[in-house]
Amino acid sequence: MENPLLLFPQLNISASKDKSYYKVMKSTVKEESHQASKPGAKQKRNRLSLLLQKPEFHEVDQLGKPGNLTKAASVSPEEAVKWGESFEKLLSEKAGLDAFTKFLKTEFSEENIEFWIACEDYKKSKTTHELLPKARNIYKTFIEKDAPKEVNLDFQTKELTSQNIDQPLITTFDAAQNTVYRLMEQDSYPRFLRSEPYLNLVSGKNPSRPTLRRRSRSFTVNDFQGVRPDLTVW
């Protein structure tokens, strides 16, 4: 009997192809399985995109925008007008203190009002045991050299304050607090009263809406009839 491979050579070729195809498919499946076990670049991007959409990854801080010093709905124009009577009046009201604090953040000088608030809290201490940890914390945060929120104090005031840190009294920060208070009253407070957000509050305007808006380009042809185009505004 003749060799079947000679009679049907295609069988040998087919078998050879099947083996090659099996090897290729086996290699491909193995590679795909290996790739599936690892998150690809696209998967990583998708995961990162989902993470970035979570609220905790976005600190919604609009304090740097002048139009968000305070909510218009919470402050009446009459209240805002009273803030202009004196710096003391502004700080005595919570809404005024909050608005002024946010204003200072737009000027990157919020350490001044934060120091003043810390001193006010310090003076409310009821026992001497509360004074030492609070005094050290205030000193390390606002007064010592290269403190994270160092306030601008003259040498004499800083030295006087430093001498009482180990045995603090209720009056330990009085001199420093008064210095910072006068600085804000004479420098930052007048600018606050001239700021656009404060003037908007006084006039009853909604600070969340800009007073002027750029004209939209989505007009119809009829909107421009009889009007000469002024290309300079674009």
From TrEMBL:
Signal peptide: none annotated. It comes from the Eukaryota. Pfam families: RGS (PF00615). The keyword GTP-binding does not apply. Keywords: Signal transduction inhibitor. Residues 86-202 form the RGS domain. InterPro entries: RGS, RGS_sf, RGS_subdom1/3, RGS_subdomain_2. One of its GO terms (biological process) is negative regulation of signal transduction. The keyword Signal does not apply. This is RGS18 protein.
